[in-house]
Amino acid sequence: PCTQVGPPMKPHTEALVSGNLGRVLRERFVGEDALLEAAAEMLVLDVLEGDGVPENQDVARARWEQTMVDLEVTPLDEDDVQQSYSLLLQAVHDALANEINPEDVLADDACEMCERVMPLTRHHLIPKCEVKYFTSRPPSGFTESGRSVHETASVCRQCHSCIHQFADERTLGEKYNTMEQLLSEETIRKFAQFQNKQRNNLAAHVNGLKYKR
User: Fold this and answer.
1) In whole numbers, what is the pLDDT of the chain averaged over residues?
2) Which residues on neighbouring strands pair with residue 35, listed in sequence order?
3) Is beta strand 74-75 parallel, antiparallel or unpaired with respect to 29-30?
4) How many other CB atoms are there within 10 angstroms of residue 213's CB atom?
5) Could you tell me the CA-to-CA distances from 186 to 33, 192, 193 in Å, in that order?
């Protein structure tokens, strides 16, 4: 794992943890959508109010498996249950490694994803815990265009959580390291269009989402 940090979590970090867990649950577990969401919430509560981040995948499984059973959420691959819990734990570590520091919290302005005027956060287009990997293995076209692995985009907290829920850190760095690449995906684009219609911090601001693909 990139790092191991215990609670308390900042609200935006909690949202990243929840998003990451939700993604792994949808990919690796079977259950009704509402129960998968409930499972993510319960695991976040366990980390926040229990004993923090599990030490390893065995501890994670011991702490979380009964919750899954109670919610009738089962591993997609019954022959590889341990790996499923390992990925859940990795999801927590990845979120913590990408925790938004105070200097990454920005003033109100237009979110680069949904275009609402909101308090913004810096989204690292190459996730912080993957900088070392991509420094030695730049994504296609990265070096030729003179881009930096430390580039960021300014997005609201809701959009930031959506991005990290959409894909794992390595995939975000490899395939979705620009806002254009992110917004080319229907899931991201629809979320941005939905958020664009929600309340923002400036009553006089008129949203006009330009991503109409």
Assistant:
1) 84
2) none
3) antiparallel
4) 8
5) 19, 10, 10
Place of tokens 């929840």: 18
- Enter the pTM of the model: 0.60
Place of tokens 């979380």: 64
Structure token digits, residue 77: 């691959």
Q: Are 119 and 201 in contact (CB under 8 A)?
A: yes
132 sits in the region (left: phi over 0; alpha: psi -120 to 50; else beta) called: alpha
CA distance 64 to 69: 9
Give me the numbers of helices (H) and strands (E) for the chain, helices first please: 9, 5
Cα(14)–Cα(127) distance, integer angstroms: 17
At 20 the three-state DSSP class reads: helix
Q: Which helix (H) or strand (E) holds 100?
A: none
In the three-class reduction of DSSP (H, G, I as helix; E, B as strand; rest coil), residue 12 is classed as helix
**Residue 170, token pair as written in the block:** 């390595």
Q: How far apart are CA 195 and CA 73, in angstroms?
A: 29
> What pLDDT shows up at residue 208?
41
Query: Both tokens of residue 29?
Result: 């577990």
Per-residue DSSP letter, 78: G
pLDDT averages per 10-residue partition of the chain, 213 residues = 48 76 91 91 88 92 95 91 93 77 69 92 89 92 88 90 87 94 95 88 44 36
